[in-house]
Amino acid sequence: MDRMTMPFEHIMKYLGSRKEKGRKRIGLLVDGPNMLRKEFQMDLEEIRDILKDYGDIKMGKVFLNQYASEKLVEAVENQGFEPVICTSGVGVRMAVEGVDMIYNPIIDTLALVTRDADLKPVLMKAMEHGKETIIFGAEPGFSVALRNSADYVIVLRDGQYVTE
Questions:
Q1: How far is CA 42 from CA 73, 81, 140, 161, in A?
Q2: Predicted local confidence at residue 7, as pLDDT
Q3: Separation between Cα atoms, residue 31 and residue 46, nearest integer Å
């Protein structure tokens, strides 16, 4: 019996170290058409790395419109996120998923990657229900209303992430 558990000790130790108490459980929603643009050079891996210090991404969805290339969809999947293809406006679908996460007891932090002020009510509802909120935006065009509605604000400006 001891022989069987010995080779797996390092794996068990690794998994045990990842189970820290107090780590946040994050629901991440990304507005693909608004944020995954060449001019912003936003990288999903960088967002994941930034959030890694704060908590664990339990649900990660990237919303794309019907014009998204297969290559982009594949890249989203390879990053470990769920691509959600929207035939109509991305914002409405993203808002619905955001409200779902607000009422999900597994999620205690809602992180949005968008510049769209239409998602401000989702942030407000999340805070009303005791969820922490993080907003990732980019200049130019990052909504002032969004900046003022989240607990944590991270802005991609001139290729660098800065906090406000």
A1: 15, 15, 13, 10
A2: 61
A3: 16
Which stretches does DSSP call E strand in 39-151?
55-65, 82-86, 109-113, 132-138
Contact 40, 112 (CB under 8 A): no
Q: What domains can be seen in the chain, in order of their start residue?
A: 22-163 (3.40.50.1010)
Measured between alpha carbons, how far is 111 from 95 in angstroms, rounded to an integer?
A: 12
Q: What is the pLDDT of residues 1-13, one digit of tens each?
A: 444 545 666 666 6
Tokens 């407000």 belong to 124
CA gap 151, 164 in Å, rounded? 10
Whole-prediction pTM: 0.86
Helix (H) or strand (E) holding 153: strand 152-157
The SS3 assignment for 50 reads helix
